[in-house]
Specification:
- There is one protein chain.
- The chain contains 15 helices and 15 strands.
- It is of the alpha/beta class.
- The protein folds into two domains: 125 residues, Rossmann fold; 252 residues, TIM Barrel (Alpha-Beta Barrel), CATH 3.20.20.
- The strands form two sheets. Strands 6-7-9-10-11-12-13-14 form an eight-stranded mixed β-barrel. It has a five-stranded parallel sheet with strand order 2-1-3-4-5, sandwiched between helices.
- Helix 9 packs parallel to helix 11.
- The longest helix is centred in the middle third of the chain and has 21 residues.
- The protein is globular and about 70 Å long.
- Bound molecules: ligand C2E and magnesium ion (MG) (2 copies).
- One magnesium ion (MG) binds next to strand 11.
């Protein structure tokens, strides 16, 4: 269970931030009103699973001194710097903390914006070592059914960009559950339950319809994107699935080939035959198919050849750090070569830093997806992100 520690000399700020965190599903949190008090606590229970929110302006031991003491403790958890001062002070303090090899998760200006807090915690959660993740609350099928029916599922979208030019080509739809009490719940906590509870068709329908609607909205704004939706093997056992998908595509006005259905490699390989006809019929209707998390599922070449996939997504475990790791590098290049042989578009998942991005540019993979480019985000954030991204990458001229 993650341990969240707030340090601020102002009790009002402590209460405010802890209630903001609680609203997002992060509780319990501890509060300390001074650096020494927090250090005493950390001496007993510092761990890599912690997140500390540190106010920089405190009487006595201030935030900067606290940062140095934290480094002395060899603290390995995450650190968020909070201040009412101007952004440059926060930036300098963050640089200092990084120089001490502390893991700075982010900076927050007071008053803390709930949206920023949510993004920060989501980022931390998705990167945190497994034991640090919130003790997964277990939900039952009835809870998930209520979420589906009650409209509590929301689609987040993660950009996929062209490696050669940096241009935005598409998005992957990733579902989240905005739980009224528990905050944002991630798919690994409810997709399995939906599958076991016979709810996955309803879930996929909700996600798919919202994604198509959104794709249409973007097109109307002049943003032509291919939209990917994850489907489960249980969807592919449904004989009327291809017709249903096609009918929704037609209603939405999005061209069939601009909808991509992603299927996880490990799942498909255990059950090829039963889904082969469904997959083939989807392709006949010009809907695109993508093989997800490639490299984790032991596909044989023969099986891959038999299924008419358009796209292959190389699993993030062979992407992040591949430039510095011979084994990853080898698996990555072999997957790339194979996908090319079979005429598939290649996507690298889990592009987390500049080194990963540079590696892909060298390798000539087609598309990239990952935190370096963007985290999954609500649809309304996409245009703002795009402007930032254009400023970050120098867009090279498109390939002929
Ligand atoms: P996936 O389809 O492989 O999606 C990619 C996952 O990797 C997402 O996790 C995404 O947030 C995360 N990710 C993206 N970039 C990076 C990165 O740079 N580094 C790291 N470490 N992770 C990154 P998320 O959203 O938690 O989804 C987990 C899985 O849940 C998805 O894996 C997908 O298999 C499943 N899922 C999501 N939405 C749906 C859905 O609507 N239906 C079904 N059946 N499954 C879904
Ligand atoms: Mg996927
Ligand atoms: Mg994947």
């Amino acid at each position: 269970m993650a341990h969240i520690l707030l340090i601020d000399d102002d009790p009002f700020q402590l209460t405010l931030l802890s209630s903001q965190l609680a609203k997002l599903g992060w509780e319990p949190v501890d509060g300390c009103m001074s650096g020494p008090e927090a250090l005493a606590l950390l001496e007993v229970q510092a761990s890599g699973e912690q997140v500390i929110f540190l106010d920089l302006n405190m009487p006595g031991m201030d935030g900067v001194e606290f940062i140095r003491r934290l480094a002395d403790l060899s603290y390995t958890g995450a650190l968020v710097l909070v201040s009412g001062e101007d952004a440059r002070i926060l930036e300098t303090a963050a640089r200092l903390a990084r120089a001490y090899h502390l893991n700075v998760l982010g900076r927050l200006n007071k008053p803390v914006q709930p949206e920023l807090l949510r993004t920060l915690m989501e980022h931390w959660y998705s990167k945190a070592p497994a034991p640090a993740r919130k003790a997964p609350k277990s939900y039952c099928a009835a809870d998930v059914r209520r979420a589906i029916v009650g409209g509590e599922l929301v689609n987040y979208y993660q950009p996929k960009v062209d490696v050669a030019t940096g241009a935005l080509k598409g998005v992957e739809t990733l579902v989240r559950w905005r739980h009224p009490e528990d905050g944002l719940v991630f798919p690994d906590q409810f997709i399995g339950i939906a599958e076991q509870g016979g709810l996955i068709n309803d879930l996929t329908t909700v996600v798919l319809l919202a994604a198509l609607k959104q794709a249409r909205r973007w097109r109307d704004q002049g943003l032509v994107l291919r939209v990917a939706v994850n489907v489960s093997m249980d969807n592919l056992a449904q004989l009327d699935f291809p017709d249903f998908v096609l009918s929704q595509v037609v209603v939405s006005g999005v061209p069939a080939e601009d909808l991509i259905l992603e299927v996880t490699e490990s799942r498909i390989m255990t059950d090829v035959l039963s889904s082969l006809d469904i997959l083939t019929r989807l392709r006949l209707k010009h809907i695109s198919l993508s093989i997800d998390d490639f490299g984790t599922g032991h596909s044989s070449l023969a099986k891959l050849r038999d299924i008419p996939f358009n796209e292959l997504k190389i699993d993030r475990s062979f992407v992040h750090g591949a430039g510095q790791d011979n084994t990853k590098h080898a698996i990555f290049t072999a997957s790339l070569a194979m996908a090319r042989q079979l005429g598939m578009t290649t996507v690298a998942e889990g592009v987390e830093d500049q080194a990963d991005w540079d590696f892909l540019r060298q390798q000539g993979c087609d598309l990239a997806q990952g935190y370096f480019i963007a985290r999954p985000m609500p649809a309304e954030d996409l245009l703002g992100w795009l402007a930032d991204w254009h400023a970050r990458v120098e867009l090279a001229p498109s390939r002929p």
